[in-house]
Amino acid sequence: MSIAVFSILAVGVFVSAFIQGALGIGFALILAPVVGLLQPNLLPVMLLILMLPLNAHVAWRERTSVDWAGAKWITVGRFAGTFAGLWLLAALSVHQLDLAVGWFTVIAAAAALLAPPFTPTRPAAIGVGIFTGVTETATGIGGPPLALLYQHTGGPTLRATVALCFLVGELMSLAMLAVTGKITANQLLAALYLIPLVIAGTVLSKVVHSRIGGKGMRIAVLSFALISGAYLIIR
Predict the structure, then answer these.
(1) Suppose 92 and one of 32, 58, 97, 212 were both cysteines; which one would form an S-S bond, judging by CB atoms 3.0 to 4.6 Å apart?
(2) CA 178, CA 19: separation in Å to the nearest integer?
(3) Which of 194, 148, 183, 179 is nearest to 53 (CA)?
(4) Confidence band of 39 (pLDDT split at 50, 70, 90)
(5) Model's pTM, two decimal places?
(6) Chain-centre distance of CA 125, in angstroms?
(7) Cα(230)–Cα(187) distance, rounded to whole angstroms?
(8) Omega into 44 within 30° of 0, i.e. cis?
(9) pLDDT(213) > 70
(10) Is-contact 52 163, C-beta < 8 A?
């Protein structure tokens, strides 16, 4: 990896961690298309590892706002979806994975932008968990379905519940990927180098998370995801 590529990834990691720490969504949506453009061989393992400290911090910071019932059913669905995501990752070539990241990004961001208000239910939580297990294990992207489920709840509930579900789900996905030999030394090394940027962005988000997260920022993040995902598909 060249210094220029690493520098771009470092900036992307810092900005993505800051936005997810503030909004509860955005890390993989922003970073996955960038990684797909520059270093697709790092997906999805590097993203999954980088999100561990981010989501652990946010879940702990706002632990009093977790929707425990919803998180339980999301995790049930997530466990089932992880196996399908592992199969998808094994079946796709690097080029096809690039396309998958682009399509999952566009579809998930568009759904989050266009979906009407609704109240989270048990069947919806299980369904979102399954979908997230598939997409995050295969591509590293899983936030939009969770954010879609909680986008009309309070900011603390969204951030805390999404972070907790991410944390548990990422551990599931990484365990499955490790058992099946899908984790490489390059992915681990890249994550190790970039983790300090995750921590820095997450810590900075703590300063502003109570004052940021309006509709404009949410639309900006999802719009960026749409553009990035579309570029991955077109190229």
Answers:
(1) 97
(2) 29
(3) 194
(4) very high
(5) 0.82
(6) 17
(7) 25
(8) yes
(9) no
(10) no
Domain limits of the chain? Answer: 3-234
Phi and psi torsions of 113, nearest 5°:
-75, -35
Quote the CA–CA distance of 59 and 28 in Å, as a whole number.
17
Q: Which residues contact 64 (CB under 8 A, 6 or more apart)?
A: 156, 160
Alpha-carbon distance of 161 to 119, in angstroms, equals 15
Per the listing, tokens 């060249």 go with: 2
- Separation of CA 153 from chain center: 19
Token pair of 211, please? 């004052």
Q: What's the CA gap between 169 and 78, in Å, rounded?
A: 6
Q: How far apart are CA 195 and CA 175, in angstroms?
A: 19
Q: 2, exposed or middle or buried, with CB in 10 Å at 0-12, 13-18, 19+? A: exposed
The residue count of the chain comes to 235
Tens digits of residue pLDDT in 54-107: 999 889 988 999 999 999 999 999 998 998 888 888 887 767 877 877 787 788
pLDDT at 140: 81
Alpha helices in the chain (DSSP H): 3-23, 27-38, 45-61, 68-91, 94-114, 122-139, 143-150, 155-179, 185-208, 215-234
The number of C-alpha atoms within 13 Å of 78 and in the hemisphere containing its C-beta is 29
The amino acid sitting at 130 is I
